[in-house]
Amino acid sequence: MLRVTVSLCILISVPVLYFIERTRVSLSEQVCWRLTWLLSALLAGLMLAINWLQVRNMCGMEVDTGIILNSLYNTSLGHFFYNSHELGSHFGFHNSPILLLLYPLYLLIPNHWALIGPAIAGIAVSVPFVYRIARVWLAPGAALCLTAAYMINPVVISQALPEFHEMNLAILPMVLILYHYFVTRKFGSCVLWIAVLMAVKESMSITVLALGVASLIQGRKWHWWAVPATMALAGTALSLGIVMPLFSSSGSVHTMRKLFGQETLGDVIRHILTNPGALMEAIKPAEMGNTYLMLLSWGVVPVLLSAWTLVAVLHMVLLLLMENSFSLRLWDAAILGPLLAVGVAIGICRLARFCSSDAAELPGKQTQTAALVLLLAIAMGAVWIRPSSFEKPANLEAVRYAVRMVPDHASLTVSGRLAPYLHRRHILRSAPWWLADDVLDGFPMSEFILVTWDNGSRAQLLAVGTEQSRKRVEHWDDFTRRLMSGDRPYNYELQYARDGVYLARLTD
């Protein structure tokens, strides 16, 4: 798959780069601006169609969707962003005040569309900003071309799929808007978007710090580097639990241990070195990697690499010295590891030349580099969206029948292959995989448990999953086997079984 992707990227890049370099077609600013809004509407329609297909076929669910919906539902009952997975407030788990903004919308639309709708709108509205940045700052003659490349990037589209995470509202649209204000030197708007960006995702502190470093080296007035640096440090302190330790719900090393099923930090490191696939799962390339590619495309390579290298070293020191006191994300630090050598080499060699140049008049090769990076992003993103993601599960009807057996007032936990959009009222109380695993440890969490295994996902977890995921399969195999034999594991009694779908009810 990698060879095919690289080959397609090379084949596509040649004619596109030639077109960018040779085209002399000129469109008026007004016409181009209207075209970008039309493309924005088309992108929103495409993402809505994708969501409709996935929701209809009950696929594409991601863990955070269930957690966030569970938190919003509990908030509506008076429990401040409480979620059943952590047995505590989810408000500080992702450092996500954005949930406060989503809550009123959730009261009006109490289902997953309260999350997906804003994500689609935010990404669609980002298209005109991509065009403006490309036309004003990067490559005026290739603005529409680069905008089209941005739009058809599957990773961009996937940001608004049912795999919802609150960062989807920020990671592309808000970064682009922030860069627009940074380049055009609108300080007030820039600071506002920095605040919004960091409220959504704590790892954006790295980007904000990079902007502060860029301002300092470019010789801007003191407030251009002092304010972003202060905000970055404050945001980092908040997310690390220094300022609000009660909202720092898990340390990064604890997260690594949970993810890899290891006991000590040394075990985690050895497991990463011997299992690269687990590392790729941990660093979340679809989240941070695509952001890095977008940053590359705007010509700020040296400054960002230098700032990120510094932050990466700091992260690793903190991981070693104060591993149990911080809620750093594994992928925040891990994805920067391979960039350390590249950052030092490129940053030192090009930093002075970059800072002394006029960012508004970048050379032709910079345009080609930007286009190539965007094409690489398209090629990388193609791996994340496959036709199989829209296939209807073979046991779909059995799942729907099982859910209809659950009373409306009852709580429901779904495990195995999640079916989050079965019923509007049930998704509000549904929880992801590992919540139900707690039941298997003897802690019942809901009145009903729905196990929806399919042979494909089960075989995949057994073959390439982590030790924790393999244990999960074994747990559920044991749970369902005992149900089918007439046993009542953890006081759960079998209510329905068909095509790998098992519905169990908690009894007294």
Order of helices and strands: HHHEEHHHHHHHHHHHHHHHHHEHHEHHEE
Summarize the amount of helix as a percent range: 55-70%
Secondary structure tally, helices: 24
- The rough form would be described as elongated
Oligomeric state of the chains in view: single chain
How much strand content do the residues show?
Answer: 5-15%
The Rg value, from CA coordinates, equals: 24 Å
Counting structural domains, the number is: 2
Total count of strands: 6
- Which class best fits the helix and strand makeup? mainly alpha
Task: Give the termini separation.
Answer: 52 Å
With strands numbered from the N-terminus, the spatial order across the biggest sheet is 3-4-6-5
pLDDT < 50 stretches: 1-11, 57-61, 153-164, 240-263, 276-390, 418-444
Mean pLDDT level: 58
Textual characterization of the structure:
It is a single chain. This protein is mainly α. The model is unreliable at 1-11, 57-61, 153-164, 240-263, 276-390 and 418-444 (pLDDT under 50). A four-stranded mixed beta sheet has the order 3-4-6-5, sandwiched between helices. A two-stranded antiparallel sheet has the order 1-2. Strand 1 (82-83) and strand 2 form a beta hairpin. The protein has helices at 2-22, 29-56, 63-76, 98-108, 113-138, 143-151, 154-158, 173-183, 187-200, 205-217, 222-239, 252-260, 265-274, 276-283, 285-297, 301-321, 330-334, 339-356, 364-382, 396-404, 424-427, 433-440, 455-464, 467-484, and strands spanning 82-83, 88-89, 412-416, 448-452, 492-498, 501-506. The chain has 24 helices and six strands. The chain has two domains: 32-385, no CATH class; 395-506, no CATH class.
